[in-house]
Structures are given as C-alpha cells and as structure tokens.
Specification:
The chain is 67% helix and 5% strand. It has a two-stranded antiparallel sheet. The longest helix has 32 residues. The radius of gyration is 24 Å and the shape is extended.
Amino acid sequence: MADESLADRALAPASGIAVYDGRVTTWLALGYIFTLAWLPAGAWDALIMAALILWFVIGCGRIGLRLIWRRSLVAWPFALAALTLAIARPGEPIAQFTIGGQAFTVTDAGIVATATVMIKSWLSVQAVMALIATTHFSELLTALAALRLPPLLVMILGMAYRYLFILQDEALRMLRARDSRSAALPDQRAGRSLLWRATITGRMVGTLFVRAYERSERIYAAMLARGYNGQPLTTPPPPLRRIDYVLLISGSAACIGLIIVAYT
C-alpha cells in the first residue's frame, strides 16, 4: 500500500472554506494572484489590505496562519531575483557599490519595486497554499477544466497526481531493499566511497524510471481495454449554490476594490 497520508490531507481538507465549491475557491485564488500582479509598485495601502484579506480568509478557514507563513518562505529565494530591480530602475540614487570594476547605483524607485515584487510573491504563495489546504484536488481539476484548460492537460495532471503516490511507494520499497542489503558491523561505516554511493543511486533512479515506464504501459493497456478513445470522460459538475455565488461576488468585489485603492 502506498503512503496516502499526503493524499488524505489533500483530498479531505478539514477547513471551514471546504464547504464552498472548489471552482469558486480556485477562481478567487487565481483572481487574487492576478490582482496582486496588476497592483503598481509602491501601492502599500492596497498591499496591506490584500494581506489582511488573505490572512482573514486563512483564519476563517482554520488552516493555521503560522504554518502558512512558515511554508511560504519557500518563495523568498526565488523572489530574491527581484533584487536586480534595485539597480535597474532609474530614480534618486541612494547608495553605490562596485563589483569587478563596474559601478552600480541603488535607487529609491528600485528599492520600492524590489519590495513590491517580494511582497507580491510572498502573498501569492500563501494564496496558493491556502487553496491547496481547503480544496480537493479533484475540484481543482474541475475548476481548471471550467476555465477551458485543454482536457488532455487536465487529464495528465490528474493522472500524474494519482500515480505520484504509487511511484513514491515504489521508491520506498527500493530504499528498503537497499537498506536490507547494506548491513554494517558495529563502529564501521556502511557502504563504500562517495563515488560508489553515487553509482548505486544512479542505478536506483534508472530502475525506478524503467519500472514507472512499464507500469504506464500496463495502465494505458488497461485504459484501452475499458474503452478509452483519447478523450477523457468526466461527469458534469454540479451547479453552483447560492452561497457559492455570494462568495464569488464578494471575492470579486474585494479584488476590484484593491485595484481601485491602488490607482486612486
């Protein structure tokens, strides 16, 4: 059996927001991210309001604000690429430094642009994490299909997620088999040199790829035997309820309000 702890967490979110239709929460999360992208640099009032709205939703969803903050730090290494804006944007000089004989000038407009991009990235990652924590993965796929994402791409995403845990289980079995064949005497290091370990790891990765390829062939043959003709078959989604429309209209109004505040 595959370890389905991660799957259970994704497929059965225990949150107050989970009562809403997944299409609505997905659309609002994407709308929130696009709204952040449209905000101009230095729109601090709009960014503060956007952060408060997101944190209020996370709090109402009983997700755990500290957990979301901690995990969203993964975006900071990528957001650091925005540091180049500090020297690329023209403006009032603040500081100057030299690297390899080349002088660089840090401007006030560049600092504002850098801070804005980093805050936007941080809030966007939090919105995505809140969406994943409150929405079933199958509902995410339904929402993407409703947004006219190509059906084949939606099916690939669903298959990849479904068999990700089977691949994980296969890898765990291989690691368990390796450990059972790598006994070590007391006070002695197991295994050999670093090159030997790298060779064994490379062979394990190759074996895992071959097994995954063979499994995919068997799965495809089983799909053909069950009438698969290249078109994914899905049941029509249920209609949106009144509470879903209320949430959709409220979220859209909040996004429009952020844009109005930013440009006025």
